[in-house]
Amino acid sequence: MRQTDEKKPGIPQALEDAVLAKAGENWSVRRISDWLETDHGVSTSPATVARLIAKYRAERAATAKQVAREQLSRGLTSDLDRLEQIRAECERRASCCSDDKDWGRLIDLEVKVIDRKLHYAGVGPDTESVPTIVLEWPDAQTRDDDTDTAN
Question: Do residues 11 and 36 make contact, with C-beta atoms less than 8 angstroms apart?
């Protein structure tokens, strides 16, 4: 257990905005702590300053994310439609492709587009509801046979 002779007070609410402004000017927490003591007579630790800054960062991050989501949602439908067009074009080109390497690249691109759509739909890789995608790479002959039967 740590012993201290005197407990340092927290940062007065009236100075919180000034502390955040100093942090915004890239001042270190030690420098802000020293400034509080020298200019305002408030003795506080750099850890206390760091906690205050972290608290406000977390609050602002949530607000910033919400603003970004609202902005992105305005064009999401058209973006998803465009992703579907790209996916369909990849599928079309892959079905006509005779080179394994090119076919593989197109399928990889199609999978990336599908992953992006899932991400924006809220079921991206960071959620448990996303199925694992397993690709089986048919040889060129199998693809050619499938193309012939489709025509």
Answer: yes
pLDDT range class, residue 126, cuts 50, 70, 90: low
- Residue 43, both tokens: 């003795």
Residue 40 lies in a domain: no
pTM: 0.43
| Inside any domain, residue 55 | no
Count of domains observed in the chain: 1
**52 sits in which H/E element:** helix 46-96
Measure the CA–CA gap between 74 and 82, rounded to whole angstroms.
Answer: 14
CB atoms within 10 A of CB 97: 18
Tokens representing 129 are 């509801």
Tokens 């609202």 correspond to what residue?
A: 70
